[in-house]
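Protein modeling request. Please complete all fields; requests missing the sequence field cannot be processed.
Requester role: graduate student
Desired output: 3D structure, token encoding
Chains: 1
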Amino acid sequence: MKKPEDNPYVEPHTPEFGDTDELSEDEAREQVESLREAVEYHDYRYYVENDPAVSDKTYDVLYDRLETLEDEFGLRDEDSPTQRVGGEPLDELETREHVVEMLSIDSSEDEDEVRRFDERVRDEVGDTDYHLEPKFDGFSIELVYEDGTLEAAVTRGDGVVGEDVTENIRTVPSVPLRIRDAPEQLVVRGEVYMPKDGFQELNKQRVERGEEPFANPRNAAAGTVRLLDPSTVAERPLDVFAYDVMSTTAEIGSQTEAVELLESLGFRVNDHNRLVDGIDGFVEYREEMLEKRDELDYELDGVIAKVNDFDRRETLGETSAHPRWSFAYKFPAKTDVTKVADIAVQVGRTGKLTPVVLLEPVELDGVTVSRASLHNQKQARRLGVRKGATVEIERAGDVIPQVRRVVEEGGKDGGDDSREDGGFRMPEACPACGSDIVRDGEHHYCTGGVACPAQLKGRLEHFASRDALDIEGMGEEVVSVLVEEGLVESLPDLYDLTVEDLSALEGFGEKSAQKLVDEIGATKDADLDDFLTALGIRRVGKERARKLAGVFSLDELMEADEETLLGVDDVGPEVAESVVGFFGGGDGKSDENDSGGREVVDALRERGVEPERRETDTDDAFEGLNFVFTGSVEGYTRRELEEFLELRGADVTSSVSGETDYLVVGENPGTTKREQADEHGVETIGEDEFRERFLENYG
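Delivered output (699 residues):
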């Protein structure tokens, strides 16, 4: 983008403005036009060139003056740089046909395939120059300009039709809303992406709010650009690289000319583009970019070669899926070893603080991993995990990613959560609500209780989970909305929700709202063991809840003292203390965060919640047996199998130990539990034998 001439607001000094009431309407309009041009130029220098031309203070003065004039003189325009903050929420994303079909690019990790592509090209058009570009790991977008104004932004979709995300893309600072001296018609193809540092900061915020982090920057960018509320999109760090001119009234005859046009018009163009005269240059370029991959602030998954000359491209043509003049040389996936981008602290439903290692995304056993859990501060410091360290990751039990070891320490700068020695330490205040942190053994807890939004979200998710009250349709996203909109401030508030309340929320229609209200209402007469599980009493999981419900009614349990509770199988001193503390008895020292349970139960009862003790049908064949499952049993959910066995006196646990009697191996089993069964000498039975011995004989 060229520097505007004869514009007083592009120079690096802070102008002084008079009162707006001293301006005529024509003078205001003229000043607004100059200010828009200047702000657009300064945005380009800041967001595209990373080379600001004025100080933040000067920019703020110009921006504020522009906003004031637009408001006072009624000159607001949707193409003004002041309108990037995001408009009104949309009901849904419309679809739109592309101006030019957006084909995908043929690709391979095999160098032989790359050279065969070159042979095909040279067989048809002779020796040719290739324009080389990074292959961004984001997603494609079509930007349509008419007379220099952004008319539409459309996702790739199926290549013919995509989703119209114009209002969301308008919030991205590097995308021009208006192009001065632009060709009459211009269709640009670009890549929407989220910078690595912005991605990690977003994930850190999500973890600290008790939300699930994104798996990788591509998912984060794709999920963001499809949101229905542009104001939320404006708060997230999206960016766009422009790399192709799909259609234009300007005269261009090569890819190099297309890129030069894009750059001159103010688009962000990657500075690693290169022109080479043969395929050897492409292979060398791939190795060079592979080495630079980790240094860049955006994700790459390969490099692309494009025949530079447009006439030769026309001769080569395209298949139904790919252009025959372009090829992508893919990078191998990152595996096992990666860097620690940051360490966030997650607050669980009981207030327990858990360090979460935010990683540069890495592929592990076919799954993209962007975070790993640490048990507590002691483990983090024992392993030496700190920001900037290189670590080896493993999936514990084939599921939960964990840090196995530190390969390289990295810098001593451990970030805000570290001290001079670079070792990780827990914060002194809860990252979600700012409440004090207390220590209990090796663990740290927030004292904010359900007033802490992260704890409240966790408690609600647990309350509605399959192992608790199994409220269908009340997952993480719905819980977040209910809390953030202020509709639910405690567990009992769930039973006050109405169809009208829910219908007003994004993502709900009248039918889905009614379904959720009905699901919540159906739990009012839940089984007592499920209800106790749902309350989230510390150290009381599903198994202990079942045993407590087998001995006590709800009223009896709330009045029980520690000595009485110790008479129940599998209830030790810590569990007894937790239960008594939860219902407001004892000194509650170790469970101060759980106090108030009696008030919660009373409030739930006021809303008609009255859990019932279910009748058990104990059979000698099941009494005292302990089952563990791996894989699925056709026709049954895991919850149905657990209830079937537990109603007949058996125990079902999640891990194999010396106390396990049977490991039931169903379809698609894991390997860890079977190895544990061999180690402990536990009898392993298949699905057919399990059906014959237990389901069919005693069902």
